[in-house]
Amino acid sequence: MLPEKSSNRNLAIEVLKLSKRYRIGLAEEKQETLALQLVHLVKAPIRNFLKLRSLGRFRSEDESVFWALKDIDFEVKKGEVLGIIGHNGAGKSTLLKILSRITEPTKGEIRIRGRVSSLLEVGTGFHPDLTGRENVYMNGTILGMTRKEIDRKFEEIHSFSGIGKYIDTPVKRYSSGMRVRLAFSVAAHLEPEILIIDEVLAVGDAEFQKKCLGKMEDVAGQGRTVLFVSHNMAAVERICSRAILLSSGKIVFEGSPAETINFYLSGGKAESKWGKIPSHYPRNSYHTGICKIESIELSQKSLRDGYRFRFGEKISFDLIVNSSEELGVIVTLSFIDQTNTPISFSASNEMNRQHLFDLVEGKNRINIEVDQTLLPGDYSIGLNIWDPNGYPYDSIQSFGSLSIEKFGKGGRGYPWGKNLGFVAFQIGIKNESYET
Amino acid sequence: MQKQEEITTVIRPQKGWVPIDIPEIIKYRDLLYFLVVRGIKAKYAQSILGVGWAVLQPLFTTVVFTVVFGNLAKVGSDGVPYVIFSFTAMVPWNYFSGTLTDSSNSLVANASMITKVYFPRVVLPLASIFSRLLDFLIGFIAVGGFMIYYQFIPSLNALFIPLLLIILLLTSIGLGLILSSMAVQYRDVKHVMTFLTSLLMYAAPVVYPASLVPEKWIFLYSLNPMVGVIEGFRSALLGTQPMPWESILWGGLVAIMIFVFGAYYFKKMERVFADVA
Fold it and tell me: What is the model's pTM?
């Protein structure tokens, strides 16, 4: 064997040309006559046999073959925390299943350096008739721990779960929350060099979720390699150091978590995010067809690429709104973060109901200028047009994309980031002990 | 911190026939142990008699057989009371048929584990086969009770019981591996097992002595590993007949073949378990 290249020593996982093929069900032919149906029925066992056998065999490329993953290549360095995001059915779970050796790849190769534990589910192997204690041992050994390791960590697992005196009660008498907490505690006390996690954070009550996320950050902070699949974009951004985006079994984007999430949320089209609103774009309207937002544009060509702004820089939008009659409305604008949470709000009437914004019949060209102090990060906007009673004429959410850079108006570096908050308010501050 | 040898795992599609990875099973022995314990505990959880059922189950069957075959049909019992004649056979047979049912179901019943975690899948049928050993042991003790009651003294042939046990285990494991992996893809196995085990019983000398089988069929009959095992038990404990070495030899060879084939077949089927379970 050739000696390995020294650079490879720093890689925890190498994935080369990985592909996985599945067979999907096809609709059966319909039988027209009773006689044909009878023949169909008699032939059923043969058909079933061929169908069942074909689940594991692939002779020809027929139409029931589906590639869940197609020629995936990536590397994970030791100590890196890699996030994997993508729509349902993009191939994330298949990828994790192959990495954790649950299923075999159809083609390609993976090299993993180090002990792997994968958490695609918590509480695997839990038996309702066994006590909590027995299930901890059962579940722990399934996840690859030895009895001695569990003996050593048992007290820690027990106290982390908060199960208390119920540890010797059969698990079937537990509430579902207790069961999940116990299961997660076992999982959280694995000590692998490489950890593969799929969505397990979405368990338990809010407090326990917070505890779990904290534990995950600990693990990531200890210099272990983590692969993390989640739909929770905030968690991906918080924990991961890099992210890849899967779509239809291929890697379509690779980069920092923020960039990847941004690319994902914008539907994979970074350029055409502003402008005319696509016809299928989801809208919310109470009065149908009276007033419609046609397009939203950034008015100035700012900094690079047209959608990056300095911290504190004014942002101005150009809208085209079509109205079928003269209207007095209220226009509101929100900035929305990557988890789809609106984080700021501005209204045309400045909180005064009588102060309405006038629309003419036909095409209205409207300019909105925002004196924003958003912290550096990526945002989209929400735009609403309301009637005076607070019912929407039209409403567009999470449209467009813009970045606030870590530079202030004068070009000086602005050190704070979105992890500290979303909006920077101006404050007056004085030390009153100096006043005489 | 101690410096550990780094483990490199290579994952790539497997091709052809490979044997079961025994070092890996040894690595996962704790899991096997807890699965066996889980199997035993779960089986007798929330029951009054608990493991007492391990004696009562074969005992009730034996009583029925004694009435039907011993008293009414007057089936021969090689000159010993029919009760002890059939009970001695019932204990290994019950173990055998029980392992077939349990192991064939072991992968399907644990499909959630198979699709969520990696571990050598072979521990599942193995655990179901080993958890039955407790029942077997208890049944064996009950046979001892009968022997004391009827005043039987085991012959020197009792020294060969471990050999019979090995044949019994090889057959159970071999068939368990084949049936369990087939059942993942073809759920028909479950339906077949419900009547097959009771039918198979008549292909082994459980309710009748092997001496009833015509001479010209005896070789074919001996290819059933359970024939040598059951007649061997009777010979060792009750001294009904001399040790049936011919049946034990042929049965043993078949058992080894079943075991080896099972080990390869399981490994071949294993790669699709997670996809079709």
Answer: 0.71
